[in-house]
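User: For documentation purposes, I need each entry recorded in a consistent format: the amino acid sequence on its own, followed directly by the corresponding structure tokens. There are two entries in this batch. Please keep commentary to a minimum and don't merge the entries.

Assistant: Recorded as requested. Entry 1:
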Amino acid sequence: MIENAECLIFDLDGTLYEDVDHFQYYADLLKERVSQKNQQSFDEDYKAILNGEHLLMIGKVYDMERDTIVTVDPFTGRVEKVTSWYGDLWDREAVRKAYPQSLQYDFEHYIAIGDGWWLPFAVAMHYGVGIGEARECYVKTKDFMATEEFLMSKTKGLKAALERWKEDKLLVLLTNSEDYDVENILNRIDLSGLFHDHIPSAFKPQKTEEHFQIILDRYNLNPEEVVSIGDNFLNEIAPALNMGMKAVFVQPTDVEFDYPNLQVVKSLEEICP
């Protein structure tokens, strides 16, 4: 799949580097914004989520207004199942009335839980933390990640692979991170200068297909010539498959998917020649 591609589109966070310590740092900052009486519950819920003992998990959607956990079809956005935070299952009629159309992920009402950033965020929202406060905690976490105190690991073989791929393939970085974060992170993991094109602040998944189409048009590519590589199924994988592209899903946990043109790997090490 990789060798036959004309273009590789990479996500950044969780894909080009796979560290997770910063998620706990972010969670600890968010917990400080929770009322004292609920901080223990925050810890218990977040621990349960990480241990797979809570209904909220990567791949779900958190409805901030209704405080519900929503299961959606990743290709259509149609709601398939809804539960309360505590696991009470909604009946089909209630689901139909509340969610008559495909969800539009806007980061203000419907939060696509696509990676580890959104897990503590959703817990914080459940316990009354404001979006502005969560944003402040996110910025502080990003600032921490820019310090020498935060150690970022390098994926074995990735730099050499990118250098080789760059000779005959278009390499694009498409990320929700801001531009200043992108450059800092690429420098930290020694991957600066290896991409032909950078697209920061991409607002995935809402604008993923829009960005993909721009890339196809700009570089005169056919969808089947492009591989999207990322750790977020809603952000990078489902939109690519929807458009006829191929995809590599980086997922360290044991998952099984049976979609054409999809490869699942635990780390990018598996595809680095």
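Entry 2:
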Amino acid sequence: MKVLEGHRYETEIKLAMLLGLRRGEVLGLKYSDVDFARHTIAIQRQVSTIKDDTKTDNKSYYGLKCLKSESSNRVLSTSPEIEQLIKRKKAYNDLQAQKLSETYSSLDLICCDEVGNVLSPQTLYHAFKRILEKCGLPTNTRFHDLRHSYAVLCIDLNVPIKVLSLELEHSSTAVTDSVYADSTRAKQELADLVSNALII
């Protein structure tokens, strides 16, 4: 978190860490999704590969897409830190828009490239790897592991499984429980076993 302060991709990475979002969901966020009065943010699109059928080369590009299902759309609560993060990013993007005038894209994206267009997930991926290296953390850590870290931290903080399941947009609480809660229980059981073995 400290290394990220003032970094070009601070907003993108911190939003993933603080909200448990997937990379595509972070990159698909718009300012219109944020309700500062209600302290919420709507997750309703993602950046993903899109095929351009109008071109003969059959190449794909990154664009905005709906989430995989209607149930994937969700509204999350925001904290003052998250809101400040978004406001700082808005100030930066507004400055870019002023500088570039009509060449700046008006997609309303929070996390965009220097000209307001969709930010390539690959660009974010490589930046994330460089940050891991700078922090002395394993460089084989995936961006998606930020989502897993969020989930495990929530469980450690005793967030109810039902609440966490909705936040992560899992199909059921059983999915959340099987993926995260079992490993946490195993750690607790291990701690208890070691403690009991050492007590005379």
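Summary note for entry 2:
Residues 173-198 form the longest helix (26 residues).
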